[in-house]
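It is worth pausing here to work through a concrete case rather than discussing structure prediction in the abstract. The textbook approach is simple: state the sequence, then state the predicted structure, then interpret. We follow exactly that order.
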Amino acid sequence: MNRARILRWSLLLTVLAALLLGASGCGGMTATSWTGMTLKDERLYAADLRQIQVLDPTSGEVFQAFPSNVEDNSFGILYVAPVVGKGYLITASQLPASGFFGSASNVVLKLDTETGSEQWRFAGAAGQYIEGGVVSGGTFVIGNSDGNVYALDVESGELLWTFETGHRVWATPLIVDDIVYIGSMDHNLYALHLSDGREIWRFSAGGAFASMPALQDGTLYIGAFDNRAYAINVADGTERWHFPPEQNGEVWFWGSPAVGDDKVYAVDVKGEVYALSVERGEEIWHHVLEAPVRAGPALSEDGGTLLVSGQNGTLYALDTADGARKWAAEGKGAGYMTPIVDGDTVYEVRIHGTYRVRALELLEGGDGYKELWIYPPETEE
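Step two, the predicted structure:
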C-alpha cells in the first residue's frame, strides 16, 4: 500500500475512532469531543456530546444548554451541528445501547429552544449520522450512513421521502431553488427534487463525495476521494473541468471548497492548499501547510484572507492573492471543521483538546489576530 493511501485510511480511521469513542458513552469525555457548531441570530450552538451549549459569540458565556442537566442522557450523544430555526433546533444524535443485548440507535431530534423540550424524534435510519442536515421550505434533509437521504417535515417530523444511494452518506446537503445537491460514498453527487426526492441527475467520479458542494454562477465546486476537485454544471450535472488535469494520485479532497472572486480554494488531506481559476480550474498558486487537513477553508469577509484549520491545532491564515502565509495561530487539540467567519471574528472547534471552541479577532486586513475567548475556559491547576 502506498504512502498516500495509508494517509487516507489513517485519517478515515481517526474520524471514525472519534465518533465511536463518543458512541461508547459520555463518562470521562470532558476533554475529548467531536463538536459541531452553528452560528445563528447572535448565538453559537455547539454540540458537545453531552449537551448543545448556546454561547454568546462575543464572550463565550453559556446562555443555555440542551438538555439543561448534563447528567440527562435522554437526547443521546450530541455531536452533529444543529439546524436552528425560529423557536426550534434540529440535530441528530446517537442513543446508547440499553441492556446487555441492545445496540445503539440513531435519531433526529427537534427541540424547542425556549423550553428545551423535545418536539419530535425520527428513529427510522439504520446507520449513524456523520454530518448535519439542512432546512428549506419546511423540509429537513439529512444523509445517513445506511446509504439513504431522508427528508422530514419540520413541523411534525413525518418522513416525507427517502432516496437510496449505493453507499454511506457522510455529506451535508446543499439546497438551492428547491433542489437538493448531496454526495455519497458511492462516488456520485446527486441532484434531487426537494418536493419528493426524485433524481434529476447524478455526476459520477472515481471516488467518494463526503462534503457539501459550493455553488456560484451556475457551477458546483466539490472535491472527491479520487484525488480531484470538480466544477459541475448545476443545470445538467455535466463536468466543466477537474483538477489536476492528469491523475497523479497525490491529492485527495475531503472538505468543502471556498469560492471568492475568480478563484476556487481547495485543501487536500495532506494540507496542500490550491487556488484555482473558476473558469478553467487552472492552478493560480499552491501553498503547503505543516499539518494534514480534514476540513474545508473559509474566506474572510473582505475576501483577502483564507483560513484553514489544521489537525495539529493550528489555524492558518493565507493571503488569497498569492498564497503567502500571513500568520498561524497555534492551539490545543485538532481542527476537524471549517472555521465560521462572522465579520472580523472567526470561530473554530476542536477535538481531543482541553477546550472545544475558540474565537479569534481578525485584525485589519487580516494581517494578525487576537484571541478573544475559549470554551470551556481553562482553569489553573
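Step three, interpretation. The chain is about 5% helix and 40% strand. Residues 3-23 form the longest helix (21 residues).
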